[in-house]
């Protein structure tokens, strides 16, 4: 896993179509895996365009090829206020959504590299908590969260469905 090969940067308007192609294939993979996540028209191209417009879209890049995408927000997930369970911390936090890796780059540990960049983003903002949620049936993401030492904190309702919520405290 060569972390230095990849750069991580804010997405630009010109990246939207390439990002959407990655997400479209990820949505199809979720369906093929039997997951209900992302099977209701979300996310879509306008969600990605809004992420970029609001400066929360980020890409993992191999030279000039976008290989991964996520949205990163600070203290901005209203659903997290109503957790069934409890968070490890109650202060500032970074939250990320819409994690997707290009089909051509699957199985190379890139999601973990991207999560490391998200942790670095948090630390650069002097934030020591990273929170995320995922579907109960997203086995790939659940495995990565376990591998990256995230702690299961409970359930949140996101867009009408229960989701597993996790937090990682950064040192």
Walk me through what this model shows.
It is a single chain. The protein is of the alpha+beta class. It has helices at 16-32, 45-53, 110-124, 139-147; strands spanning 6-10, 57-62, 65-74, 84-85, 94-101, 129-134, 151-158, 161-169. The protein has a single domain, classed as Aminopeptidase, CATH 3.40.630.30. The protein contains four helices and eight strands. Strand 5, helix 3 (110-124) and strand 6 form a beta-alpha-beta unit. Helix 1 crosses helix 2.
Which keywords apply here?
4 helices, alpha+beta, 29% helix, globular, 32% strand, 171 residues, Aminopeptidase
What is the topological layout?
Blueprint: E1 6-10, H1 16-32, H2 45-53, E2 57-62, E3 65-74, E4 84-85, E5 94-101, H3 110-124, E6 129-134, H4 139-147, E7 151-158, E8 161-169
Parallel strand pairs: 5-6
Antiparallel strand pairs: 1-2, 2-3, 3-5, 4-7, 6-8, 7-8
Helix pairs in contact: 1-2
Note the main sheet: 8 strands, mixed
- Count of discrete structural domains: 1
Q: Which word captures the global form?
A: globular
Averaged pLDDT: 95
- CATH topology grouping: Aminopeptidase
Helix % is 25-40%
Organism: Sphingobacterium anhuiense
Enzyme class: transferase
Domain N-acetyltransferase: 6-171
GO molecular function: acyltransferase activity
């Amino acid at each position: 896993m060569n972390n230095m090969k990849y750069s991580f940067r804010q997405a630009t308007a010109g990246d939207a179509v390439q990002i959407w192609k990655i997400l479209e294939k990820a949505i199809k993979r979720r369906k093929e895996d039997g997951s209900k996540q992302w099977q209701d028209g979300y996310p879509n191209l306008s969600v990605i365009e809004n992420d970029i417009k609001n400066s929360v879209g980020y890409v993992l890049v191999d030279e000039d090829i976008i290989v991964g995408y996520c949205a990163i927000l600070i203290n901005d997930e209203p659903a997290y206020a109503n957790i069934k369970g409890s968070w490890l911390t109650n202060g500032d936090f970074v939250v990320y959504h819409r994690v997707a890796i290009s089909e051509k780059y699957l199985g190379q540990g890139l999601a973990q590299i991207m999560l490391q960049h998200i942790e670095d983003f948090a630390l650069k903002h002097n934030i020591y908590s990273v929170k995320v949620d995922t579907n109960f049936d997203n086995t790939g993401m659940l495995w990565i969260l376990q591998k990256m030492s995230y702690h299961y904190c409970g359930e949140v309702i996101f867009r009408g469905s229960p989701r597993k919520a996790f937090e990682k405290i950064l040192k």
